[in-house]
Amino acid sequence: MESEGNRCRAYNALALCLIVLSGCASTQEAIEANDLLEPASRKSHAFNDALDRHVLEPVSDVYVKVTTERMRRSVGNFFNNLNEPNVLANDFLQGKIHQGIRDTLRFAFNSTLGIGGLFDVASGLDLPRHEEDFGQTLAVWGVGEGSYLELPFLGPSSVRDAPGIAFAIFTSPLFFLDNLAVSLSLGGLDVVDTRARLATAIELRRKTALDPYTFTREAYRQRREFLIYDGNPPLEEFDEDFFEDEFEDEFEEEEPFPEEPPPEEAAPETGAPGAPPEPEFPAASPEPLPEASAE
């Protein structure tokens, strides 16, 4: 039994090494795109896309048909309010004390005056909704993004953002419900409502993206950068020394242009431009001097 257990552990270790090596054996393009786990992520993307086409899309279409826009807005407000504990916790973890206090008031007002969050009364009280999560908190703490990662059922993520999924689950009020059936039902409704709100974006990706996986990856990263910097991401910087060296080398390699001869000086013009030429008169011969008469 002990030898079989050691053999199983050895097989598991070998499988783990193969997974790690397969992620590291990526192309130069994957390294530059910070997508070292691209083979596994593409498989997850294909699975998620098939799940969306055959399950989520038909269910969300029925959901849209049997509900009104006002009803769907209330459902979205309800689940946004359930996410507020996750938001305000990360407010304080990021050192945003003032924003954390305001988000706490927002959660309190919407949970009471808004009837459990069905109505967003806090926005009318100058308490807008913020989007914070543990992945953003890790970014503020200086943790690097890591490789892009698409998870089955959960969608786009990254090595840095993945722990935020568990953090959001543990801070959600649904986690503390004793009735598992109610928790799962509400979680399923959240997924369907989110899919209905993203229907236009998903359809646009299918029609315009040459590579839906790459499109999703870059859109996710841009969105995350926008959230991390609170809507003010830094401008892309370029290496000025590299820029100058490249142009200096380019100019050095080019052959110099031949020098053009200086233009001939034009004779000074006489008279106004366009005036008829002055007539030329023959030179007058000198008249002879009169001879002096002898007296």
Describe this structure in words.
The chain is mostly helical and 295 residues long. The protein has twelve helices and two strands. Strands 1-2 form a two-stranded antiparallel sheet. Helix 3 crosses helix 9. The N terminus is likely disordered.
Blueprint (SSEs and pairs):
Blueprint: H1 2-24, H2 28-32, H3 38-66, H4 69-82, H5 84-93, H6 97-112, H7 134-140, E1 148-151, E2 155-158, H8 162-171, H9 180-197, H10 199-208, H11 212-228, H12 240-253
Antiparallel strand pairs: 1-2
Helix pairs in contact: 3-9, 5-6
Tags for this model:
295 residues; mainly alpha; two-stranded antiparallel sheet; 12 helices; 2 strands; 59% helix
Describe the structure in brief.
The protein has 295 residues and is an all-alpha fold.
Main pleated sheet: 2 strands, antiparallel
Strand order of the largest sheet: 1-2
Shape: globular
What is the overall pLDDT average?
81
Number of helices: 12
Share of helix, binned: 55-70%
In total, how many beta strands?
2
Beta-strand share of residues: under 5%
Radius of gyration (Å)? 39 Å
Helix-strand sequence:
HHHHHHHEEHHHHH
Taking pLDDT < 50 over at least 5 consecutive residues as the criterion, the unreliable ranges are: 1-26
Class from secondary-structure proportions? mainly alpha
Give the N-to-C terminal Cα separation: 168 Å
